[in-house]
Amino acid sequence: ASADAEMAAFGEAAPYLRKSEKERIEAQNKPFDAKTSVFVVHPKESFVKGTIQSKESGKVTVKTEGGEVFSMNPPKYDKIEDMAMMTHLH
């Protein structure tokens, strides 16, 4: 049986417990550049995704709201259930 069929047992809660196989594959195949994709500390959202625009003299310009910069995991880890597989943990 497929993973999606197994989740049917959880009824209305299923979409919150595990995304569909199609949605997981789409998320995991988004374009990704490990050198420019980062998380930025955000005062209300904890962390938000950002993209490094430039690095110069120890300063980094990121396209998003400001804050401390952390490396981001590639999309293949999006919605992964076992976080031990992730490259970066914050």
TrEMBL record:
Residue ranges of every copy of the Myosin N-terminal SH3-like domain listed in the record: 33-82
PROSITE patterns given in the database record: SH3_LIKE (PS51844)
CC per GO annotation: myosin complex
UniProt keyword Iron-sulfur, yes or no: no
InterPro entries, alphabetized: Myosin_S1_N, SH3_Myosin
Pfam families: Myosin_N (PF02736)
Record has ATP-binding as a keyword: yes
Keywords for the protein's UniProt record, in alphabetical order: Actin-binding, ATP-binding, Coiled coil, Motor protein, Myosin, Nucleotide-binding
GO molecular function ontology, one term from the record: actin filament binding
Entry's family note: Belongs to the TRAFAC class myosin-kinesin ATPase superfamily. Myosin family.
Name of this chain's protein: MYSS protein
Organism expressing this protein natively: Syrrhaptes paradoxus (Pallas's sandgrouse)
This protein's encoding gene: Myss_0
